[in-house]
Amino acid sequence: MSTDSPPSVHPQGNGRGAVSPPALALRGLVKQFDDTLAVAGLSLDVPTGSFFGLVGPNGAGKTTTLSLTTGLLRPDAGTAFVLGHDVWSDPVTAKRLLGVLPDGLALFDRLTGAQLLEYIGRLHRLDRELARQRAAELLDVLDLTDAGDTLVVDYSAGMTKKIGLACALIHAPRILVLDEPFESVDPVSATTIRSILQSFAASGGTVVLSSHVMALVEQMCDHVAIIAGGQVLATGALDHVRGDGSLEERFVDLVGGHRDLGNGLAWLRTSQG
């Protein structure tokens, strides 16, 4: 395990000279599964208060990187800092600052939605009444009130995604780390979730999300990182990374892999007339 010191602080531009560390600072993260090197010495800073998009092709290492960042997986080397706190040497402090929606989230699905949220709130040391109050507000905003007394195991995929997001929000974290938060979510619910996340970021929170949908990242994010092969290919402000083109064009240029069909699949282009 790396013994890297905490990242240096950076000015946040409040006019009084105050400084704070990045929301997330990843330093030399490495993770290997058997013969597959999923994350290969990845380093990355996520500015405090940013809406940060993480994009990459399938198998790029996005989910593994987020799992290493939030303490769900232990790195083979390197470390991650959450507002200057090492996820591995100071896990209680670091994780208290995080709200996490992992990919394939395993929930206590034999609880009702309301019970689950209250339970998660209590785990975060909210008193019972406050946990119940916040659970009711989250169920209402996410249009899950009618399902509050339904066991989570009986939720649809979209409902499960929303209750998972509610679990990430209930303790009012400083940083949200969300892996494909809009997957399986209907357009109306997606609009609500976007509003919640934009309000959170506007109030000074930091949002980190992974997504395969480039248009969504361009619409919502002000910073972005493109990763492939477990490494960062480009990172920075959205306009800087995409340059004069779209984010998708920049992504394809960096990642490669576009296939020119040429004369292939000619049988799909048979004349219908």
TrEMBL record:
Q: Where is the ABC transporter domain?
A: 24-254
Q: Where in the cell is it found?
A: Cell membrane
PROSITE patterns, per the entry: ABC_TRANSPORTER_2
Entry superkingdom: Bacteria
Write down the Pfam families for this protein, in alphabetical order. ABC_tran
Q: GO biological process: what's one of them?
A: response to antibiotic
State where it is primarily located.
membrane
Q: Give positions of region: Disordered.
A: 1-20
Instruction: Output the Gene Ontology terms for molecular function.
Output: ATP binding; ATP hydrolysis activity
The topology of this chain with respect to the membrane is: Peripheral membrane protein
User: Which UniProt keywords are present, listed alphabetically?
Assistant: Antibiotic resistance, ATP-binding, Nucleotide-binding, Transport
Q: Which GO cellular component terms are attached?
A: plasma membrane
**What residue stretch is flagged as signal peptide?**
none
Q: What is this protein called?
A: ABC transporter ATP-binding protein
Its lineage opens with: Bacteria, Bacillati, Actinomycetota, Actinomycetes, Jiangellales
